Predict the 3D structure of the following.
Amino acid sequence: MNPFKGSIAILGSGNIGISLAKGLIKANYALPGQISLTRRNITNLNALAEQGFVVSADNAAVVSIADIVVLAVLPQQLNQLLEQILPVIKPNQLFISVVSGVSCADIRTKLGETVQVIRAMPNTAIAIGQSMTCVATDQADPENIQEVIRMFETVGAVVKINEDLMTSATALCACGIAFFLRAIRAASQGGVEIGFHADEALKMAVQTAKGAADLLLQMQSHPEQEIDKVTSPKGCTIAGLNEMEHNGFSSSLIKGIKLSAAKAGALYTKE
């Protein structure tokens, strides 16, 4: 990978921002000294400062010298942040927003129409380089889109989607981590019910879930294709599956994802 030549400011360095910064370094995308990390309490960033990252509580100062700015604060903190950095914005500066429910147009309304804005929605598996990140924009230049894809490929898989699907991506990929974790937890509790110790049951459920996901990724097959391989006539697998379906397993997951998408679209208020 060709190293990035400029500087990157990550504003709001929580789990997502810090994981992205570490991923960029691990993949040789950038050097620690090229990346500035900000948050209100910078004592939480001391370990990263020791690794060579630039650490600051002054958002405007780091934005004034950055080529790429990553907005990684909570939706309710965004408007105040944009007001802080507005005086130092440079024309054609690239902004990457990982803020749920905020459109590219919303950000340009606050910062001016000359800036380039691209949205990215990673999930918490970014911490281990296994994120599913969706990327979207309304009018950013193709080369900037490719740069953002390149950045997030250092921490997992990337799919470019239409911007009107970004709240849907939030529900399926970002919230989805919790949904799959809850399914694994439930499976492990079932394991305890049928005789395993809790630690054994959790290990079995986790590895079985990982194996199921890897089957689909590596075999490039459909879930039902793999399900058919394990469901024999009058067998125990189909009995268990049908019992779960009678109790709403699939429909509850579908309804939960739909509700999360509706909620994700209402997190940010423009005022």
About this structure: The beta strands are 8-11, 35-38, 54-56, 68-71, 94-97, 116-121, 131-136, 156-160. Residues 4 and 147 are 9 Å apart (CA to CA). The longest strand covers residues 116-121. The chain is about 50% helix and 15% strand.
